[in-house]
TrEMBL record:
Keywords: Hydrolase, Membrane, Transmembrane, Transmembrane helix
Protein name: Class D sortase
Organism domain of life: Bacteria
Active-site residues, record numbering mapped to chain: H129, C186
Amino acid sequence: MHKVKSIKRVNRKNRLVILSISVIIIVFGVWLSTDNIYKFVKANSVVKTDVPSTIVTEKKQPKKIESHKELYPTRPEIGEEIGELYIPKLGATLPIYHGTDEDELARGVGHFAGSVLPGENDNSVLSGHNDTVFRKLGEIGEGDQLIVRTSAGEFTYIVNKVRIVDEDDRTVIVPKPRATLTVSTCYPFEYLATPSERYILVAYLDSKKLS
């Protein structure tokens, strides 16, 4: 009888041990599952939050595309008419031809082919005879307007300086740091023999109306 009671006591202890182990396993399993579910939910929430914010940022900062329009897509040929010079103070409108050979100067104002075209940055040089197109150029001085109209638009220059230089003075055609119009003719105007000097108007671009 005592032996039977001992066996029952042992079986009861074994059941308690097994039950305890089972409870521990179940609790551990529940904890592990909960932890994994939390990590999974957190990971998905991060992905869902980050993706839209990246897209919004890209939309708020579009790429800027710089565009540049050339005033003259094609360069003129020598002898080609490129525009006209209007001098408000004289009420004179004079045709401009590309080139400064006698053929161009006989027809109007010549544009020195080694300089930029009117309206472009740097020094655009025009020349003409003082007994034809520039007969009255001596009446033009500082503050007067010189307006050039070409296929690119209308460019208004204001005379900034008047110079009288030797006929061999090459400073007339040197590059300039800003849009400049240099107009040259022989000087003095009333001199009948071949003039040895040049009357120079240096004008800076004041405004423009592009075509």
